């Protein structure tokens, strides 16, 4: 894995799993009780609560050691071009690395909505990179990026996450890479 891919993976995990409980909008669900999706029935409201609890406990409270409590054994984290992290223990380890590297990490939830067993969260992540993160040495710099993450739940636990993170912002803030369009 290339250095920029490791950085992007760490950033995605930080954002994908980060989050506070400040919710700007959750009006996207007409039916908060039960909906059908991918052949499963589930409470949208309950699924949102699981995702928000995961984000608050693991990321905002910096408890990477609690991540496994929210994940299915076969959990997969999908980071697009950065790749996939498979298995509850591997994903929990990645979360621990993220909150250790950015010990003041905070993710402000801007929007959250769901349908059936899927929950989508739009958030802004911020903190200070004080430790090495997937090949990017500790910069001591503040970082901030936007993210949109989709969670799939099974039986009240997160089974998959698709992380859509602004990795260029993270790389720029750490001084690792500056895109030509950023001045």
Question: Would you mind describing this structure in some detail?
Answer:
This protein is α+β, with helices and mostly antiparallel strands. It has a single domain, classed as Roll (Nuclear Transport Factor 2, Chain: A). Helices cover 30% and strands 34% of the residues. It contains 4 helices and 8 strands; from the N terminus they run αββαββαββββα. The strands form 2 sheets. Strands 4-3-8-7-6-5 form a 6-stranded mixed β-sheet. It has a two-stranded antiparallel sheet with strand order 1-2. A hairpin with a 2-residue loop joins strand 5 and strand 6 (118-128). Helix 1 packs across helix 3 (88-101) and helix 1 (3-17) packs across helix 4.
């Amino acid at each position: 894995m290339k250095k920029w891919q490791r950085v992007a993976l760490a950033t995605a995990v930080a954002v994908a799993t980060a989050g506070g409980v400040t919710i700007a909008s959750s009006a996207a669900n007409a039916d908060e009780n039960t909906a059908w999706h991918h052949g499963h029935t589930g409470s949208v409201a309950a699924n949102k609560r699981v995702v928000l609890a995961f984000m608050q406990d693991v990321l905002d409270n910096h408890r990477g050691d609690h991540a496994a409590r929210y994940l299915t054994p076969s959990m997969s984290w999908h980071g697009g071009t950065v790749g996939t992290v498979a298995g509850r223990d591997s994903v929990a380890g990645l979360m621990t690395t993220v909150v250790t590297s950015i010990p003041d990490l905070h993710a402000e939830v801007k929007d959250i909505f769901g349908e059936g067993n899927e929950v989508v969260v739009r958030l802004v992540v911020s903190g200070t990179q004080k430790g090495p993160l997937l090949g990017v040495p500790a910069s001591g710099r503040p970082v901030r990026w936007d993210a949109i993450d989709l969670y799939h739940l099974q039986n009240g636990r997160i089974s998959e996450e698709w992380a859509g993170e602004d990795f260029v912002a993270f790389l720029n803030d750490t001084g690792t890479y500056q895109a030509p369009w950023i001045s």
